[in-house]
């Protein structure tokens, strides 16, 4: 099994910045990719950004140019630097890892709340 623990959420004013962190732990696993998803009240969970083990990145159009995903493979950590935050970025942000223990599957963190006030 793989456990994911997020940190770094909070309340920030519009235009501000936050940095989310996610640590993956467990034994006998190999991570294929990591990423961040978010879910706002009444909406479906959506992709924010992903990063492969080779550091290829993918971003939702709504965050391109404002958010940056990065990864520390040695520490099994992924980060999301969020700049120029907007009220519409308010959501619970979930860390995701696609990892192989016996077979490849997706693992999720418990989520961290990000609230952007106008």
Written description of the protein model:
This protein has strands at residues 2-7, 10-13, 18-26, 30-39, 46-52, 57-59, 67-72, 77-82, 91-100, 104-108, 112-117. With 118 residues, it is mainly beta. Strands 2, 4, 5, 6, 9, 10 and 11 form a seven-stranded mixed beta sheet that branches. The protein is globular and about 45 Å long. The termini are far apart.
Topology:
Layout: E1 2-7, E2 10-13, E3 18-26, E4 30-39, E5 46-52, E6 57-59, E7 67-72, E8 77-82, E9 91-100, E10 104-108, E11 112-117
Parallel strand pairs: 2-11
Antiparallel strand pairs: 1-3, 3-8, 4-5, 4-9, 5-6, 7-8, 9-10, 9-11
Key traits:
single chain; 118 residues; mainly beta; four-stranded antiparallel sheet; 11 strands
Report the mean per-residue pLDDT as an integer.
96
Distance between the termini: 40 Å
Q: SSE order, as H and E?
A: EEEEEEEEEEE
Describe the global form. globular
Structural class by sheet pairing and helices: mainly beta
Number of helices: 0
Biggest sheet descriptor: 7 strands, mixed
Identify low-pLDDT runs: none
């Amino acid at each position: 099994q793989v456990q994911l623990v997020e940190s770094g959420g909070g309340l920030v004013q519009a235009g501000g910045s936050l940095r989310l962190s996610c640590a993956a732990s467990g034994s006998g696993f190999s991570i294929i990719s990591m990423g961040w998803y978010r879910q706002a009240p009444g909406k479906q969970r959506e992709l924010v950004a992903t990063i492969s083990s080779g550091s290829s990145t993918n971003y939702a159009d709504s965050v391109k140019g404002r958010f940056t995903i990065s990864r520390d493979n040695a520490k099994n950590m992924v980060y999301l630097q969020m700049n120029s935050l907007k009220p519409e970025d308010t959501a619970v942000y979930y860390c995701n890892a696609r990892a192989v223990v016996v077979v490849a599957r997706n693992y999720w963190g418990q989520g961290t709340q990000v609230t952007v006030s106008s």
